Amino acid sequence: MSPSESKRDAVEAAAGPMRERQRAEIGQLAEAERALRRADREHDRALRKSRRLRLARSSSPSSERKPEPQPAEIDAVGHRSRAIAETRTVLGSLGDLLGEGEEILDMAAGINAGHDGVLVVTDRRLIFVAPRRTLSLRHEDIARVEMRGRRWLGTRIAVFSPKGRATFSGIRQRHASELAELLDERSAVSAG
Is 157 left (phi over 0), alpha (psi -120 to 50) or beta? Predict the structure, then answer.
């Protein structure tokens, strides 16, 4: 056995337990993500129940004084209102960006350069729209597309063009794979 083979065997032997720990950590992160989603749903249910109770109290004739909303309720409602307003802004911007006859093929929520927005693949280009950021790349300008990692925040798609690299994260792995395939397909058709 050569020294390089013995080194490779030693590295493989040491890598086994590390891979097992990594799998366990990935499982723990996935469970934590599920717990956060459950907690978010519970929180939303509690807010809806609170709103229903407030509406019921305000509509019933009573001389009782209405309880003041709790600060957590105000923050959650304010946050949700801001999110809805930003979503409307993004969707309005997307409508303005689309050319006549341009068809949307797929879209996903994603993050680019720290901005939460929407990644859109049309029959002509790739568009990322966020409240304070817009990015547009024609399919013929895309040199290659890579999917990177399977992180707890989602899979990342890296799009390379003459202008540089644009990375989109926070996308579910299956959807990221579909988007990457679609971008590869469209850029190959545009180049050929």
Answer: beta
**Whole-number Å distance between alpha carbons of 116 and 11:** 40
Residues 6+ apart with CB under 8 A from 150: 26, 173
Q: Identify any residues that bridge with 174 across adjacent strands, giving them in sequence order.
A: none
List all residues 6 or more positions away from 97 whose beta carbon is below 8 Å from its beta carbon: 127, 129, 134, 136
Structure confidence by residue, pLDDT tens digits, 104-130: 899 888 899 998 888 999 999 999 998
Integer CA distances (angstroms), 120 to 130, 179, 182, in order: 11, 9, 11
Query: What values do phi and psi take at 168, rounded to 5?
Result: -120, 125
Which position has the token pair 């707890």?
A: 152
pTM of the predicted structure, to 2 decimals: 0.56
- In single-letter form, the type of residue at position 105 comes to L
